[in-house]
Amino acid sequence: MNAEKRRRIFAKLAEANPDPKTELEYGNPFQLVIAVLLSAQTTDKAVNVATRRFFPTAKTPADLVALGEVNLMEHIKTIGLFRNKAKNAIATARQLIDLHNGEVPHNRAALEALPGVGRKTANVVLNEAFGEHTFAVDTHVFRVANRMKLAPGKNVEEVETKLMKFTPPDFLRSAHHWLILHGRYTCVARTPKCGACVVFDDCEFAGRHKISLDSINNLVVPAKARTQ
User: Fold this and answer.
1) Annotated catalytic sites, by residue?
2) Are 94 and 115 in contact, with CB atoms under 8 Å apart?
3) What is the pLDDT, as a whole number, of residue 208?
4) Structural domain boundaries in the chain
5) What percent of the chain lies above the pLDDT cut of 90?
6) Residue 72: CB partners within 8 Å, gap ≥ 6?
7) CATH no. for 3-18+136-217
């Protein structure tokens, strides 16, 4: 895919959604860290349901430590891997208190050193909380980048590197949000909604025309039904 196509794709995504945001609910950078930590292999919707139970009273690392691992597990037992996530969340809160005066560090290495926090989570926090130009490559971004040929790669690191290199600088601040949302609601895993895609004309997915045609055909009402 050439640079002109990439620019048009991001321009169209920006026009459709000028100010994209994470769908995770949070009140401050600490709560963002915890929400993203909890979101692994879990939908944002499910995480939001869980965090609404304890975020009102757990606004700081000290609050979460005071809540305790057992009580936290009770609040998040509706999401996957809740036991391990509760353990990591409490450990992260303690580390923020012990090493960072209870504040979320604006530093990639320090973020990735937190229990349960990997590169993807660090990228989300750096972008969402601190405004850095980062790409959090989750399953949606990985799929979209490869399917559209926007930044094809064999693993998330390769896709991230290419997206950082090929995305026009003026779109970098919001680019990963656009791709996440595009993958979540339009360029979905099993049957992408090509007929409703705002970047259809510039996409290089080989099957897009067939899927779009099938979508149109599925809307055609059979003649027998029209006469009834």
Assistant:
1) 120, 138
2) no
3) 75
4) 3-18+136-217, 29-128
5) 87
6) 54, 64, 86, 89, 90
7) 1.10.1670.10
- pLDDT tens, residue by residue, 74-105: 999 999 999 999 999 999 999 999 999 999 99
3 state SS of 163? helix
- CATH classification for the domain delimited by 29-128, as one of 3.30.479.10, 3.50.50.60, 2.60.220.30, 1.10.340.30: 1.10.340.30
Helix ranges restricted to H, 68-112: 69-76, 82-100, 108-112
What average pLDDT does range 185-191 have in this prediction?
92
Backbone angle region of 41, left / alpha / beta, with phi > 0 → left and psi within -120 to 50 → alpha: left
Q: How many CB atoms lie within 10 A of CB 206?
A: 9
Which pLDDT value is given to residue 223?
42
From residue 52, how far is each of 14, 86, 99 by CA, in Å? Answer: 30, 15, 27
Q: What is the pLDDT of residue 212?
A: 61
Give me the helices (H) in the chain, please.
3-16, 29-38, 44-51, 61-67, 69-76, 82-100, 108-112, 119-128, 139-147, 156-166, 172-185, 208-219, 223-226
| Tokens coding 117 | 């926090």
DSSP of 175-199 = HHHHHHHHHHHTS-SSS--GGG-TT
**pLDDT above 80: residue 149:** yes
Structure-token pair, residue 23: 């769908």
